[in-house]
Task: structure prediction
Amino acid sequence: MDKVVIVGSGIAGLSCAIRCAGAGMHVVLVSPFPSERSQSVMAAGGINAVTSDHESGDSVSSHIEDTLKGGCYLAGRMAVSGLCSHAEDIIRYLEGIGTVFSVDEKGRPMRRAFGGQSFKRTYYCGSGTGKIIVSALVMEARRLEAAGLITRMLWQHFHSALIHEGVCRGVLLFDDRTGNLHPIYADAVVMATGGQNALFGKTTGSTQCDGYAAGMLFMQGAQLKNLEFIQYHPTTIETPQKRMLISEAVRGEGGRLFYQEDGKRVYFMEDKYGEKGNLMTRDVISREMESTGRDIFLDVSFLDKATIDNRLGEVRDLCMKYAHLDICRDPIPVAPSVHFFMGGLAVHLNHETNLRNLFAVGECASMYHGANRLGGNSLLAAIYSGNVAADEISGRASDENTHDFTLEIEKKKEALARMFDSQSRFPSLYIRNMLSDTMRKNLGIVREESSLRHGIEELEYYISIADQIRYDSSVNPYDNYSLTGILALARATLECALERKESRGSHYRSDYPETDSTQSFASLVSYDGGKYTVCPDKECFYES
Amino acid sequence: MKVRILRQNSPEDQPHWETFDYNGPEDASVAAVLDYINYNDDIETDEGKKTSRIIWDCSCLQGICGACAIVINGRPALACETFIRDLKEDVLVLRPLRKFPVIRDLMVDRSSIQENLKKSGMFIGEYSGSDEREHDHQYSVSKCLKCGLCLEVCPNYINGKTFFGAAFANDCYVVASRNSAKSDEIRKTYAEHFGSGCSKSLSCMDVCPMKIQTIASIAKMNRMKSRNRKSE
Result:
């Protein structure tokens, strides 16, 4: 193929762009913001890999098994094997482009322990791993921009895909500066738009990752997968602004969870799971914390100051800045909060969706994490998925057929113009906030049928009114037109959670508290004119 | 609390001031103040005049993406990590960064930062190994947000046409120190677009959200220059 358009310029989008350009393709990399504003910069803890100098006893097979087990055996073995087998190459690649890893006295990148892993295999850059990797990838992309192989377009919001007879031929974008919709035609489209935070309001992630692109593509015929699996990160801290992530690196460096009882500290995770209790997977810890019904604290004050300064400097600064808390002295009050979405656009092993030439990479795609993601695997999957999609696209012949989308685009422009005409001052943000209330109440750590049905009823109502309301047009038009896709995605998520009548990983049903071995299949959900159909992927359609 | 905001409807329009009343929580950040004012059926100035919602950029809301860089009571800062309780003044005055074209209200186009880095060939290419003593500074500099605060406050930076400012100088250091084969090329562009124009006010370091010690980058680039001259 000759030309690819990549929507989103975080780590997954950048990786895909660099690889495609390296293969000689012309890449158009579109995003509202530069890469420095992407959610990728918020990934703190590290990136997993088993390298040739691994800990004694560790192996790629062990990484694969830990990932499959952490995801409660819902992710495909072939996909996970590919991910873990290429991890060392990815670390070497990142080193090669100048990523500033934390290194030992001999200059070798260091590893730390992370939850759910049998060995120390999480490479890191202080507690700002995502940011440092973004900085390196931005420089590498700049090399290819200077060579004319990557063209960056900022101020661009995704509107919809240009699809005809099941084949994607480009995207329609909204340009923030001109206020216009415009098409970009390409041989392939790669979505790298991140997770679905907006379903839950302000989460640990970026305000820019709202799930709209996945929701809109769903309405345009793309299948979604495993939406019910939403990771609640166990250690987040309340601030006046939002709940902020306390990196798993804190527990990786020895941090201990406890609650107070009769003046004594109860280290409940260690009491139940032994010395590695604080490094259980995130789904297990979040549920255990919730079940105590008490205020939970995370303590690192016993660590020496140099370890905190050198390895947890960003966490120290964040707690001081936003909570006036000195982690060298005081325990951190923590609670679980929405952090990562294992579900997203369903993709085959080559990261193509069910729509030909439409690919998805990074968090917006569902592939490697099953029912629960291990810390350190998201950065790995972001880069690996970008590479896989790039290799597929660059090795494929361009489709000779064309289609005239003029009429369709004109209709969409007219609909947007009607939105601009509004004199209303009603903010679409009100609906978004109602949505996040509904999702938090009915799709928490513990779920059950009646609350899920209640959530669906509320979503039906929001969807029924969303198109009838005139919104304040003084805000960014994206905020208004994105509402329909976000609501459809939320409704699909609730439907998936209702349909999975078992507990597995991050999906815990109080009315079905056990894991049911007959349900060890991914959930797929499709949309057809307002009808949502959920079915298990018994044929493992996407594991190919 | 009164909140004065310099507003502009489009890149072509003239800016104008509007004042709002803020009666929200006292521990709010400036970002939270903007959210608070915007979250109403009708947005009204302190004189009851209806107006449009305030447009501003945000992403991480925790000081690590740089989106919300604006001028707060005359000082360039991130809205999400500036708290109104810490301000000395009774009035909160917000305006967009002045060194960049305004898109709308507090939203500006900072793409000149990236363009200058691109046209000056600011990429490592291939890592050639590095002196371990440089590691901590390389790590610190790699955290640069490209937010533009250092350029806003700099007395030498005007519009980025010739002098590229501290963000550029720090990237010069990263590239030159991690790919020795490029150091000659980088120190030339450094001299042209930074070294010859910097008056060492170092105000860039006062406002940097990542506390990057640009003076260390300057010193290291100068030492690199001396070293290279000796080896010549």
About this structure: The radius of gyration of chain A is 22 Å.
